[in-house]
Design goal:
By secondary structure, the chain is α/β, with parallel strands linked by helices. It is built from 13 helices and ten strands. The strands form two sheets. Strands 3-4-5-6-7-8-9-10 form an eight-stranded parallel β-barrel, surrounded by four helices. The protein has a two-stranded antiparallel sheet with strand order 1-2. Helix 2 packs parallel to helix 11. 43% of the residues are buried.
Length: 326
């Protein structure tokens, strides 16, 4: 496994980040022991970057990750663990957002569920229009100063919001956000390539990308005119699936399948390699429910995507060709 610096910062992480939202666990399709084996498999394969959030399954995913970490305590110090704050986690008036109240309460709850004394990268899960940014970043600064987090970052921020956050942190001497986390894949390129990757270059930010195979659309198992796989999330939303699977999307998938066959890789591995071929991207996040899913995506690292195939994929996936897929 190769390791990359998180932007301009010294910490080094694997180019595959293990996401532990465990959607199958939420849906009752995956048991806790399988989730733990999936985490252990990822670590055994060299993945040292693991992502979670207080929102995932009402905190249960943090608890599962905590049990996995407890079972491999000798490896904890070599892992970079993230969690997030912002999402609505209860019915109370202060059970969401990025107020000082919510942040300081939720970092302690996350640490308890994870069984840790600190989180390595603590992320604002989204922009909070109801809380002054200086209040939010002051609280995140205190989280770092108190030793409860090593670094802080932001998810789903626009380029303008990123610049504002960096300015506020610099103005007040707060801990500087070091990393972004946004959706990015062959289908969803808009807003990232034209704005956020430039912010990463200019300011030395790391970039974590999520949904690398677009919730399975880029796995090679989905084609226009065919029903989605019965075990996929799309089987429960066929109307939306059919709307998304335009002729342009299907042509992109065909191009991806052809590229995978030429390279003796799977479509998912090529989709990961395409993301990681962008030097601004630190890590692409995978969201597996089974150990074998981790084994497959790790095949998207350790090799270089040929320039001619990168060019074909770029051309087939331009936002002008695909439109903005929601």
């Amino acid at each position: 496994m190769e390791y990359r610096q998180l932007g301009r910062y010294g910490v080094r992480v694997s180019p595959i980040c293990l996401g532990t939202a465990f959607r199958g666990f939420w849906a009752g399709q995956t048991d806790e022991k399988t989730c733990i084996r999936t985490i252990e498999t990822a670590v055994d394969l060299g993945i040292n970057f693991i992502d979670c959030a207080n929102f995932y399954f009402g905190g249960r995913c943090e608890e599962v990750l905590g049990k996995a970490l407890a079972a491999m305590q000798d490896k904890r110090d070599n892992l970079v663990i993230t969690s997030k704050v912002w999402s609505e986690i209860g019915p109370g008036p202060n059970d969401r957002g990025t107020s000082r109240y919510h942040i300081m309460r939720e970092i302690d709850r996350s640490l308890k569920r994870l069984g840790l004394d600190h989180i390595d990268l603590y992320l604002l899960h989204n922009w909070d229009a109801d809380t002054p940014l200086d209040e939010t970043l002051d609280a995140m600064n205190d989280v770092v100063r108190q030793g409860k987090a090593r670094y802080v970052g932001m998810c789903n921020y626009t380029a303008a919001q990123v610049v504002e956050a960096l300015w506020v942190a610099d103005k007040h001497g707060f801990a500087t956000p070091v990393c972004l986390q946004n959706q990015y894949n062959l289908i969803h390129r808009f807003g990232v390539e034209d704005e956020l990757l430039d912010r990463c270059r200019r300011h030395g930010l790391g970039m974590m990308t999520y949904s690398p195979i677009a919730v399975g659309l880029l796995s090679g198992r989905c084609r226009r005119g065919e029903d989605p796989p019965a075990d996929s999330i799309w089987a429960n939303d066929i109307e939306r699936y059919r709307k998304i699977m335009t002729p342009a999307i299907d042509q992109l998938i065909a191009t991806l399948i052809e590229a995978a066959a030429e390279l003796d890789k799977t479509p998912a591995q090529v989709a990961f390699a395409w993301i990681l071929d962008h030097p601004e991207v630190t890590a692409a996040m995978t969201g597996p429910d089974q150990p074998e899913h981790v084994e497959e995506v790790c095949g998207g690292t350790g090799w270089t995507l040929p320039a001619e195939i990168r060019s074909k994929l770029d051309e087939a996936s331009t936002p002008d060709r695909l439109g903005q897929v929601g």
